[in-house]
From TrEMBL:
Protein name in the entry: Glycerol-3-phosphate dehydrogenase [NAD(P)+]
Origin: domain of life: Bacteria
Pathways per UniProt: Membrane lipid metabolism; glycerophospholipid metabolism
Glycerol-3-phosphate dehydrogenase NAD-dependent N-terminal domain location: 15-166
Gene Ontology MF terms in the entry: glycerol-3-phosphate dehydrogenase [NAD(P)+] activity
Organism: Larsenimonas suaedae
Annotated NADPH binding sites: 22-23, 43, 60, 117, 149, 264, 288, 290
Function of the protein: Catalyzes the reduction of the glycolytic intermediate dihydroxyacetone phosphate (DHAP) to sn-glycerol 3-phosphate (G3P), the key precursor for phospholipid synthesis.
Phylogenetic lineage: Bacteria, Pseudomonadati, Pseudomonadota, Gammaproteobacteria, Oceanospirillales
Length: 366
């Protein structure tokens, strides 16, 4: 990780953002505030005009003043013209289709960064895998961390992680997005960072349900702590570094998503905990809550691989098999205690891995 800055001689100046939702718009505004030329692609022409002319995204970020230099458009060719860095903030269900749409205007030199926290249904691919499959870029990475879009857009002090095995990608993303209120750490565990962002959504649904049932801080802490053990067990068995889960893209994102009513996944869980149907909760939300699909995919994969995931399994049963949240809670509390061993790291492994694998931050301005 010592080479993070060596290969970047200057900050990317032409940024494209694909997606007109809350997160894409927040990141577009940061990059523009740093002085880059920012073009944002979306399919809604009226929203594109509102962002360009009135500097608001009233549908996804109501009340937030955006950087006035962002130019939003529905013309993909124009948005991607000469772009050096492309941020892709499209929900996982449409991610591959949008990357395919963009492909004619992408090239191998561009940095392509996914900001999406989900898993593709038919393939169990993560979004950066899709970017690698669908494009020729050698500079592929992900951005993930405790980043509620509206807080970020309002300038709350926030940190995130850019993960890639390519130093140029990490450094370009840090240079393009780091500012007084956004600190961008680097990691080379692309898989772990990306999986962390997808997995934590599942447990935010669970904490939302617990809150709706009137449970307090003990219950939330229990779910979050056991969720961390469960998500790292799953991710490590698929090849991620356990240390990633002690960082911003692991426990950091788990905390924010499970603690805030701004989280869409939390709100879905809350609605189901109040007795509403899943379909009704999704329709009322009107935005993407990736955890609903992720819980299904992870439940299936964990069963195939024999990975012990009691919380994810319980949530799957509530969302898709009609089990009540109360019964799920009791079943979990009454289950066989012989498997209740706390997750531990070997001290030697942790010491050996810490310096080489743990996310680092080097200020691109120095
Ligand atoms: N919001 C947040 O706080 C954060 C979100 N993320 C992740 O970012 C990703 C994107 O989320 P976010 O911006 O929040 O989502 P939103 O729900 O706010 O917006 C989704 C955006 O994607 C667009 N979209 C959906 N399907 C298509 C399609 N087929 N073609 C073109 N555009 C499409 C929507 O367009 P339209 O309006 O026309 O439907 C909209 O612009 C998610 O995976 C999320 O997990 C990550 C960190 C924080
Ligand atoms: O990922 C997020 C915060 O880091 C946003 O979570 P939601 O998608 O649940 O709103």
């Amino acid at each position: 990780m010592t080479d993070t800055y060596d290969s970047v001689t200057r900050t990317p100046e032409r940024i494209a953002v694909l997606g007109g939702g809350s997160f894409g718009t927040s990141l577009a505004s940061i990059a523009a505030t740093k002085g880059a030329r920012v073009r944002q692609w979306m399919r809604d022409d009226a929203l594109a005009r509102e962002i360009t002319e009135q500097h608001h995204n009233s549908r996804y970020l109501p009340g937030i003043e955006l950087n006035p230099t962002i130019k939003a458009n529905t013309d993909m060719a124009w948005v991607l013209e000469d772009a050096e860095l492309v941020l892709i903030a499209i929900p996982s269900a449409s991610f591959r289709a949008v990357v395919r749409m963009a492909r004619p205007w992408l090239n191998e030199h561009q940095v392509l960064l996914s900001t999406t926290k989900g898993i593709e249904e038919s393939t169990f691919s993560l979004m950066s895998d899709i970017v690698r499959e669908e494009t020729d870029s050698t500079h592929v990475g992900v951005l993930s961390g405790p980043n509620l879009a509206s807080e970020l857009a309002a300038g709350h002090l926030t940190a995130t992680v850019v993960a890639s095995d390519d130093p140029f990608t990490r450094a370009s993303a840090q240079a393009c997005l780091s500012c007084d209120y956004f600190r961008v750490y680097a990691s080379n565990d692309r898989y772990g960072v990306e999986l962390g962002g997808a997995l934590k959504n599942i447990y935010a649904i669970g904490v939302g349900m617990a809150a709706a049932l009137g449970m307090g801080a003990n219950t939330k802490s229990m779910i979050m702590t056991r969720a961390l053990a469960e998500m790292s067990r799953f991710a490590v068995s698929l090849g991620a570094s356990p240390l990633t889960f002690l960082g911003l893209a692991g426990v950091g994102d788990l905390i924010v998503t499970c603690s805030s009513e701004l989280s869409r996944n939390y709100r879905i869980g809350y609605a189901v905990g109040e007795g509403r149907t899943l379909d009704d909760a999704i329709e009322t939300l009107g935005q993407v809550a990736e955890g609903v699909n992720t819980v299904r995919l992870v439940h299936q994969r964990a069963s195939q691989e024999g990975i012990y995931m009691p919380l994810a399994d319980g949530l799957y049963r509530v969302l898709f098999e009609g089990v009540s949240p109360q019964d799920m809670g009791l079943t979990l509390m009454r289950s066989d205690h012989s498997s209740d061993v706390e997750f531990t790291l070997s001290r030697q492994d942790a010491q050996r891995d810490h310096h080489s694998l743990y996310e680092t931050n080097q200020d691109p301005r120095t």
